[in-house]
Specification:
Elements (H helix, E strand, L loop, with lengths): L4 E5 L5 H15 L12 H10 L10 E7 L2 E12 L4 E8 L8 H16 L4 E7 L3 H9 L3 E9 L6 E10 H8 L9
Parallel strand pairs: 4-5
Antiparallel strand pairs: 1-2, 2-3, 3-4, 5-7, 6-7
């Protein structure tokens, strides 16, 4: 990988870097991420960041930057938190030039570990488009189980997304931690 990987909460001042990264990967990302087509300016990205700064994932989306040294490589977030089910979803995207470096797998590993360490969450879910094999490999590498399939309507009556739903339970994650050499394989 080379460099230092870190996650930090996205802030308003990161909007310019985030938009530049999004623009450099727009053609690729629009295939997989619904909101990308609506982010047409740095102002749109600033609005997206502002709208996704919830204090806790049970109260909305919590958005983090994936940073390689001082360069923004992508974003990862916690969303769809459900306090009754004690569950949360993880979403992510990575700039096209940062793909294949293991950054998203490592970022998910870090964030999931933190979720289970500091909260009462019992379940973490990752939803991936059925046709996005690189994205599917991330939960598979991390030991997630395929737990279901969903269809999500696209905006403007443009069909639907076929999603695979992967799940990880707290007790399974703690068992997985005892075998750290498995992370990143496959």
């Amino acid at each position: 990988m080379g460099g230092t990987l870190r996650l930090s909460r996205m802030k308003n001042e990161h909007a310019s870097q985030a938009f530049e990264l999004l623009e450099s990967s727009r053609g690729y990302l629009e295939k997989w991420i619904p909101w990308v087509k609506n982010a047409r300016s740095e102002g749109d990205m600033l609005e997206f960041i502002r709208e996704n700064q919830a204090p806790h994932w049970y109260q909305g989306r919590v958005l983090f930057g994936i940073w390689l040294d001082s360069e923004l490589a992508g974003m990862i977030d916690l969303h769809n938190g459900d306090a009754n089910w004690r569950s949360v979803d993880i979403g992510y995207w990575i700039g096209e030039r940062f793909q294949g470096m293991g950054l998203v797998t490592k970022s998910c590993d870090m964030l999931i570990g933190r979720v289970f360490e500091v909260s009462d969450a019992q379940h973490v879910f990752i939803r991936c488009d059925r046709n996005n094999a690189p994205s599917q490999r991330i939960p598979e590498r991390l030991g997630f189980a395929l737990v279901g399939q969903e269809k999500e309507e696209k905006e403007e009556g443009d069909g639907h997304w076929d999603l695979l739903v992967y799940g990880m339970r707290r007790h399974r994650w703690s068992m997985r931690i005892s075998e750290p050499d498995k992370v990143g394989r496959k």
